[in-house]
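User: We ran a pulldown and think these components assemble together. Before we commit to crystallization trials, I'd like a predicted model of the whole complex to look at. Sequences follow.
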Amino acid sequence: MDYSKMKPQEVKRLIRTGEVDFQTSGMCDGYAQANLCILPAEYAFDFLLFCMRNPKPCPILEVGDVGDKSIKSMAEFGDICTDFPKYRIWKNGVLEKEVTDITDYWRDDLVYFLIGCSFSFESEMIEADIPVRHIEMGRNVPMFNTNIVLNSAGAFHGNMVVSMRPIPENLVVKAVNVTNAMPRVHGAPVHIGSPESIGIKDINKPDYGDAVTINEGEVPVFWACGVTPQNALMQTKPYFAITHAPGHMFITDVKNSNLKY
Amino acid sequence: MDYSKMKPQEVKRLIRTGEVDFQTSGMCDGYAQANLCILPAEYAFDFLLFCMRNPKPCPILEVGDVGDKSIKSMAEFGDICTDFPKYRIWKNGVLEKEVTDITDYWRDDLVYFLIGCSFSFESEMIEADIPVRHIEMGRNVPMFNTNIVLNSAGAFHGNMVVSMRPIPENLVVKAVNVTNAMPRVHGAPVHIGSPESIGIKDINKPDYGDAVTINEGEVPVFWACGVTPQNALMQTKPYFAITHAPGHMFITDVKNSNLKY
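Assistant: Here's a predicted model for the assembly, 522 residues in total across the polymer chains.
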């Protein structure tokens, strides 16, 4: 099955029936994918404010009304409870279980947040002939904790998590420009060069994901990462939360090209 | 007193002491000004979501934590309770009174919203040699109710209010580009040309503000207007709300040029 050439509505039909319950990376070429956080309404204002105050790591794509599980702007006929291949149920910040459908967990006081994902800007980089090392190596992107303090909101606070891609020196400006045009999926880099300046001790030992080769003449370039909001969320230990399982994203009906300025 | 050449902190000192309790239009050349809505926390999530879903009429500049009256990102040492020249107190959607200080009205459950204002993009238009008719004529900008339905959120809904500026045909593209670069203060026009297409019956009879002359060879150009969020807010009749008095804005410490892409 070549999922890369399928349309989002076709794959989501397979996700709803349970035929697809695996990672969505590489599916539906050209269409944006999204991260998920679901919280009780009592946390919703603070979490939305936290995302707005930290737009690079937490770029909001869509937020539901209190109790509304339908997706309106990022997809047609979207249901937040069935349209991700896999979900994680959290209680007091502890992972309780993974499920493929959260209809039975949905409540009238829950609010969903769809957050942009770097899959979108990577496909634009490749389109612009900028190499994306971890894709070339068939690995997960290397991610690091940093000393970059986030703007807090209510109970939500923390430091930024970044992803790193080694870029040839002569393509750094192009990489900045290509990603700057996509602020709804993390936008321009937050740092270029010296890992130490942002508190990263060993560029070959990522805190999440896999290490990648940095060649002679390449610069490590750091982008704000979508792991950031989930990290901040788990640090506050809400009594109940639902997220997607890593890599098991929502495939929107919106093309990456429509997320540009 | 020439307020246009003064720095924001100088004028705000005079506002705090009550020496300045009049309109801020034209003060502190080059610095952005902001609209105000204050609501009890129970409305805060829905109102923030409403603004996010309608970014052109309701561009958020800063939102406070619940109970926090200090302004952090748009000014140094800002106090939401003292730094506007005049406020309006609303109960159940009805104007109760105007005051110059709301310290006595502040409560631990209130949330403030600072919203972008078209003063910023008008100064950029003038800088780019695009005429701004109502300023030339010494009048208030003409504003109109439209048939453009807003995206609702919780109890908040309504139609867009637009402001109109007549632009010479050969400058329309330039006016689009100049304002498009400033999405945090309403951004690009929402409509160009035919008033009827957006439900405006008589371009010479604005619903708010003053009529202005449209010369031969000029096109009416319409921008989303900051009256929109206050209109939507008043339609839902919250039991308590505070806004600025029209024209009596907050002068930020942020230059218009820093609100550009």
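Chain B has two domains: 3-118+230-259, 127-228. That may be worth checking against your pulldown data before setting up trials.

User: Thanks, that helps.
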